Clathrin light chain
Amino acid sequence: KESNGPTDCYAAISQADRLQSEPESIRKWREEQKERLEQLDANSRKQEAEWKEKAIKELEEWYARQDEKLQKTKASNRAAEEAFVSDAEDVFPGTEWERVAQLCDFNPKASKQAKDVSRMRSVLISLKQAPLVR
C-alpha cells in the first residue's frame, strides 16, 4: 500500500532527526515541561469543577432565599389587605378623620415619598379644624 504522500515519510524522518539531534538536557526539559503542563491542566479542570459546584450550590441557596422572601411578602400583603378591607367595612359617622389619619402620614420627616405633600397635609389639617359647612 502506498502512503498518503511524501509528507508522511518526511514527517517521520524529521521526527527521527529531531530526536537524534536534540541534546539530552533539552529532551528532559521538554518531558518535564509536558508533565508540568498536564498537571496544571488537571488542577485547573479540578478547580473549575469545584467552582461550578460552589456556584450551583450558591444559586440554589439564593433561589431558596428569594422564594422564602416572596412567600413572606405575599403573606404580609394578604394580611394587610384583609385588615384594610375589614377597616373599610367598619364605617361609622364621626370616624372619618381617624380613618384619614390612618391612611395618611402626617409626619414630614418620616415620610419616604419623593413628592412634596406638604400642601395636601396642610389642606387636610385645615379641613379637620374648620370643616366645610353643607
Remarks:
- Residues 7-90 form one domain.
